[in-house]
Amino acid sequence: MIFIFNPLHFKQTYNFFKLKELPQVQHKEFVEVLPGDLSITRNSKLEIHVVEPEPEVEHKFFYKIEKNWREEKLLNHKKIFNNLDFSFSYFIKTPFAVSDTFDIIVYELPIIEDLQIRYEFPEYTGLKPEIQNNAGGNIKALIGTKVTMNIVANNPIERAEVFFSNGDYNEMYRLGRSSFRSEFKIEDNGTYHFGLEDILENKSRKITRSITAIMDRKPEIKITSPGRDTLLTQNMLLPLSIFASDDYGLRKIKLHYFINHDEEIIVSIMNTISSNTITYDYVFDLNKNFMIPGDKVTYWVEVSDNSPQKQTAYSQKYTARFPSIEEIYKEIEKEEKEKSDILEKTLKSSEELQKEFEEKRREMMKKDEISWEDKKEIEKLLNKQDNLNEDVEKVAEDFNELMKKLENNNALSQETIEKMKKIQELMEEISNDDLQEALKKMQEKLENIDPEELKKAMKDFKFSMEDFSEKLEQTLQLLEDIKKEQSLQKALEIAEEMEDMQNELNKKTEESSESNEKLAEQQEQISEKLDNLTEQMKKAAELMDEKKDSEILEDMEKMQEMMEQDSLSSDLEESMENLEAGKMEEAQESQQQASKKMKKMRMQLQNMQQSMCSGMNIDAAEILEKTIQRLLIFSQYHETASGNYSNDPFLILPDEISIFESIDLTIKELYEMPMIILVIGPKFMYDANFTFSSFRELFQYISDAKTAKIKTYLHDIQKGINLMIYDLMQANNNMQQGGGSGGMQSMMQALQQMGQQQMMMNMMTQQMMMQLSENGKMTSEMRRQAQKLASDEQRLAENLKRMLQSNPEAQKQTSALNKIIEDLESIAHDLKRGRLDQELIDKQQRILSRLLDAQRSIHKREFSKKRKAETSEIDDWDLPEEIKLKFDKMRKKALLQEDYKDLPQEYQELIQEYLKLLNEKYDEE
């Protein structure tokens, strides 16, 4: 039946029954899995399942996270991850088959993993490009800066854009699978965000970042000095210190100003500036602008930066008022009084301190031991002297500032200015090196506590204190004496200013450039100026001495009479009345008359000033000649007394005391004319101190019944007297010729050369010192070098001595240069004897240091007239025997006639040359 109805099935069934055993089960050789490889977003649901799994066959799920494989048995032939947050590789395996290995890649939402920002600043800033790696994305830069952003995303990106808050957007340029670039220029503040879309069409979240556009700040400019409203000086120069800055660069600085209500004037100060910050000193010269007392100049400065916009800034406006000469002198006189008061107070303290010190010195003379209390008391006295030194040094510094004011205001004549400069130099000499050395020596003796040594040091210090007070007193007398010249100069300045004001008013009246009322006001100011001149003439007369200044007083009385007779005040009054009434022709006539009379007055005052200066020069020349005559006599007396000395010093002691007292009296008479100190200079004072010191040491030596050094002291006294004579002769010549034979320039050149020579010698000596330490003794070659060095050091000393004799500028540093000479001669002496040690090296270093100090000191002296370089060396020459004989005859003649000026000029010059040679000869000995 089966066969009939279904022959095919029948055949299969038949074949099955024909088999001897059951056939084996057939399994899949490959496991098909879905979804295979897949990229999905984090926290997505993932289902992995087997396609047409074999029933009742175990399927296992293998997956690898990082390096480790994991195994799970599949239920229902599938694996479900509800919130997948990691990537992995996987395959599915049965006992009979295995699938391929697939990767499931889990992606974040598109984000930027790395952001690099490059800033290219505007060219005018001069800034180099700046790169920020791993930037946060907030952009901050100067307006106009080009910004380049390079991004690297976490996922492969299909599309990247930048959206700006102003509505603009940039499509980013692709660099790689996940990297892009975009550029834009900063123009304003705002925000931006990136728009990323990955290959899964996932879009990035919106993260807003800021754009801060930095404005190019305006430049800043200030007038730091004077930095306030001020007064102009008479030289019409207003020094300005200008400070300007900008964040990136400056371009130009200009000065704006106007006088009273005139038109504004602009002056270019700097056109090119190479830095962001500048401090610039500029002298505002108003000499081309005519100004009268009371006029004001308003000024300010502007600066622009180097930006394309050329931003400009302005300083604060200041005014400078042109003062009257009375106002200027009032300020100067106030400062002068302050300085004089301090010096007077210091002098009084110095005199009191001398008394205290002398009492203590006398007390110590009676003691054999020094107690702790004695030491403390002496130290206290020394500290007081040190404080007085500092007070004087401070006044000298302040006086230098006052000198600048005097020069800037033309408040004194050039001759008076030169005198004031010399006074300032004398102030610096009050607390000089000798006083400092004496103070230091006293302090050292206190440390050693040797009673006898301390007593001697106290005696020496006593004379140093007396010298300090004497110089203080002389300076005060000079300041008081120079008030006469200053007072007369003030009257002259008032007269000149009054004449200038009247001439300007005449011009304005003729041109009718201002209203009649204003012209009348200016005429009234001139009338007040005349009253001030009259008052100043009275003050000047009160300062004059009836005997010494009788001629000046007589001239002043004549001028007062002339002023009354000429009726200048009436002319001014008439001019003012006519101006107010509008009668211009009548006013001009009165003004012309007034100008003529003012010119006459000004010329008379100029003549009086010149007469005063020439009169002082005549007086100075007379006292110099008188002093020279007397010192020539005392030189002869001392030479005779020295020649009479054999073994007993007491035989010549009365003569020496008489000579000492006579010289002392002569010098005191010389100093009675305060201005003489300005003529003779510091070298004479140094040589005079040396002479008196030698006398005192001689008397003390004889008092101690000692004789070994008597001839040395007599020799030093003779040397000192001759040096004083030579100094006075040279001072007299300098005064007559209007200056010395040397100059600042020549001294600078000479000191520089000496410094270079000394430096070379120092190096050679140090090299020899090293060789000596290695060898342990001097070789013959080293001895030869030492002899040559000794000659070189001695030659340097000789050059300095000549400089002291011939150069007035060098004589202002007599004390310092003499110390250098002493060290040079000491070194030469030691090297000749083959002595080489560290002490000698230290002396050489000290010489070099002092030479440099001397050069610096010259730099501080700012003379208004620069002098040309002159030759500083004087050739060596020997004195023929015949000239020596002529000198003796001439000196005897001078002593007999008591007036060496009666000798011919060539003989006078010969005396000076011989004395100079004596000086050099004594120095050599």
Number of helices: 21
Mean pLDDT: 82
- Biggest sheet layout: 6 strands, mixed
CATH architecture descriptor of the largest domain: Up-down Bundle
The number of distinct structural domains comes to: 6
**What best-fitting shape do the alpha-carbon axes yield?**
elongated
> What is the number of strand segments?
27
Structural class: alpha+beta
Q: In words, what does this structure look like?
A:
A hairpin with an 8-residue loop joins strand 7 and strand 8 (102-107). This protein starts with a helix and ends with a helix. Mean pLDDT is 82; it is low at 862-887 and 889-904. It has 925 residues and is an alpha+beta fold. It contains 21 helices and 27 strands. The chain folds into six domains: 33-107, Immunoglobulins (Immunoglobulin-like), CATH 2.60.40.10; 113-157 and 166-192 and 209-214, no CATH class; 221-323, Distorted Sandwich (Coagulation Factor XIII, Chain A, domain 1); 325-482, Four Helix Bundle (Hemerythrin (Met), subunit A) (Up-down Bundle); 619-742 and 893-925; 744-773 and 780-864. It is elongated. The strands form six sheets. Strands 20, 22, 23, 25, 26 and 27 form a six-stranded mixed β-sheet that branches.
Can you tag this structure with a few keywords?
925 residues, alpha+beta, Immunoglobulin-like, Coagulation Factor XIII, Chain A, domain 1, 6 domains, 6-stranded mixed beta sheet, 5-stranded mixed beta sheet, 21 helices, 27 strands, 57% helix, elongated
Please render the helix and strand layout as text.
Elements (H helix, E strand, L loop, with lengths): L1 H4 L1 H12 L14 E2 L3 E4 L2 E7 L9 E6 L2 E6 L4 E7 L3 E6 L8 E6 L4 E9 L9 E3 L6 E4 L3 E8 L3 E8 L4 E3 L1 E2 L4 E7 L4 E9 L10 E6 L5 E6 L4 E2 L5 E9 L4 E10 L5 E6 L6 E9 L10 E10 L6 E3 L3 E4 L3 H41 L6 H37 L5 H17 L2 H16 L2 H61 L4 H28 L6 H17 L1 H14 L2 H61 L8 H19 L4 H28 L6 H28 L6 H32 L4 H27 L1 H4 L2 H19 L5 H23 L20 H17 L7 H20 L1
Parallel strand pairs: 2-8, 11-18, 20-27
Antiparallel strand pairs: 1-3, 3-6, 4-5, 4-7, 7-8, 9-10, 9-12, 12-16, 13-14, 13-17, 15-16, 17-18, 19-21, 21-24, 22-23, 22-25, 25-26, 25-27
